[in-house]
Write a sequence for this structure.
């Protein structure tokens, strides 16, 4: 099974992750996708969600509408600077017939609401 290719976008202040279907060999079973999430709140310098299992889907996108603040941009594979910026990270884990393939974490930047350089 190949690795899910994860991309992101921002719509109405919410993080949306989408991915391409993974290819499999020697199986006719449907691939399911597990959604995992990290939410860092810079205002409290704490994780609201730290590798939180969100659920499974057979679809190819997920929109996070639970962040307590507005998402401003897709940050990529590196988490935004934790002292200053709140952020959401999304990872997809494809599963088929006992095998997993991981997308890696895609980060989305939230507001600059941290304490700044002093932290």
């Amino acid at each position: 099974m190949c690795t899910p290719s994860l991309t992101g976008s921002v719509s109405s202040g919410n993080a949306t992750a989408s991915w391409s279907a993974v290819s499999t060999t020697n199986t006719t079973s449907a691939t399911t996708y597990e959604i995992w999430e990290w939410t860092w709140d810079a205002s409290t310098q704490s994780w609201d969600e730290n590798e939180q299992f969100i659920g499974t889907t057979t679809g190819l996108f997920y929109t996070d509408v639970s962040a307590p603040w507005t998402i401003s941009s897709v940050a990529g594979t590196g988490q935004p600077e934790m002292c200053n910026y709140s952020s959401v990270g999304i990872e997809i884990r494809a599963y088929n017939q006992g095998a997993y393939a991981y997308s890696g974490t895609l980060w989305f930047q939230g507001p600059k609401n941290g304490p700044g350089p002093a932290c």
